[in-house]
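User: Teach me something about this protein's shape.
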Amino acid sequence: MKTTAFTKTYAGRTVLSLPELELPQACITAVIGPNGSGKSTLAKILAGIERADEKRQILSGVSVGYLPQKSFPFRMSTEKNILQNGNDHARARALMKELGIDSLAGQSAKKLSGGETARMALCRILMKRYELLILDEPTAAMDMESTLAAEGLIQKYCAETGCAVLLITHSIGQARRLSDRLLFLQGGKLIEQGQTSQLLSVPQCEETKRFLEFYGR
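Assistant: First, the predicted structure itself:
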């Protein structure tokens, strides 16, 4: 699928100005870049949470799932939270087991730790099939083992559903492990894009090189 080109301006300042973006099906596209580069704004606009300056849909006729940076638990059990996005009890239990929170199924979701809440929220979004799944820093609150389990689950979901996944991440290591394609944003602009392994190994733009040298490849 393709987006249209768009811009986003706040208080007279352009925070995003992007060309048409290709988001292939059955493919995980990671977005990296420094703080303030527009990564989360991109996610919100594609999810329809915010509108671009052009006041039109950037994606048309596409079912979109969106997991924001801050996970939100409803005032009910962990399992019931997950079932808010689908009534398949067997799938809910399988997802919880894969992320190691099956023992917390009956516990109030408001009592979960930050990492447990993040795992619950990922289970919840993965209950449905989408054509585009947008994940904004989905593992930021998770420890190493939970992160690796979550990454495996995201890859499995992408392969089984054939959806396009857009992953916003601050971790170059995660982008390398998880994504097929990579977008590098800086100053609200798309600086470079390409196959993840190639872009990380042989970046073409000086901005990308400096970023990767600073944060480590």
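Now, about its shape. The chain has one domain: 6-71+130-215. DSSP finds eight helices and eight strands in the chain. If you'd like, I can walk through any region in more detail.
User: That's plenty for now, thanks!
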